[in-house]
UniProtKB/TrEMBL annotation:
GO BP terms in the entry: methylation
UniProt key word Transferase: yes
UniProt family annotation: Belongs to the methyltransferase superfamily. Tam family.
GO cellular component entries: cytoplasm
Superkingdom of source: Bacteria
Official protein name in the record: Trans-aconitate 2-methyltransferase
Amino acid sequence: MSWSAKQYVAFEDERTRPARDLLAAIPGTDARSAIDIGCGPGNSTELLVERFANATVRGLDSSTDMIEAARKRLPQVQFDTADIDTWNDTGPFDVIFANAVLQWVPDHQRLLPSLVARLAPGGSLAIQMPDNLNEPSHRLMREVAADGPWAEKLAGAAGQRTEMESASGYYSMLRPHCSRVDIWRTTYHHPLAGGASGVVEWFKGSGLRPFLDPLDDEERAQYLKQYQATIERAYPSLADGSVLLPFPRLFIVASR
């Protein structure tokens, strides 16, 4: 699956706000080593650099486009290209930061305890994941995919997102390995200019990627046209022409 740093940062302020909220919940300020897994274009890594001024901060992402953007943004930070599910650096790290990435990585039952095991004593694994697979935005992605001439091409698109556990499921998964597990869910309401087209532009940088990548240019344009038409009905514009996009997210800070 391809990622575009340019498309992603079109809504940088809105995408960075959950990372700030996640970072604020990490206990302590004396980290010596921190890593941003799924760092994207470096916007979340920049927050780590600011918060943990005395730490060695690193970033990794599977997308070379994202890594190139991150290196330009923070030339003093080491960024590496790697897949999280095969990443084998044992650390130890005082902070492992995973903002809006683990929803794309399978087998959380194995993955999350393995990440905790790479923490130094007292270190924290900080996770934020969009919890929106049942929101109209994502339900409509699947419906348009299934109803069009591209149905066969897109048969596996929805499966690229990992089915998330409940809050209690993640608590039970992590508590045996941690001294403290803090979990909460927040729904942000992002005002997006341009009505339905603003919603489409938002998800072109994230949730729509698995549905767009397999299509050719003509199919992609037609898919987006049909998707936007359904979005217009699901998210009616406000008086000023904007749309208020509800966006639920699950947060976890697990400390060893």
